[in-house]
Amino acid sequence: MLILSNDDVERLLTMEDCLAAMENAFRDLAEGNGINRPRSHTYVPRAPNVFYMFKSMDGALPRPNFDT
What does pTM read for this prediction? Predict the structure, then answer.
């Protein structure tokens, strides 16, 4: 498993590339060609009034390349 930090993502992906990919992803989703699952929240107690919070979302798109 590879876990990327926000800093890792900022070094790998420009804002322009991110916006282009998201535009295509939302277009696919709106046209019924993509799927997504709403965000899931998991809370694990660590101490009194202290919780580890894990939030995840996933989805899939048929588009093999965001450039097209």
Answer: 0.57
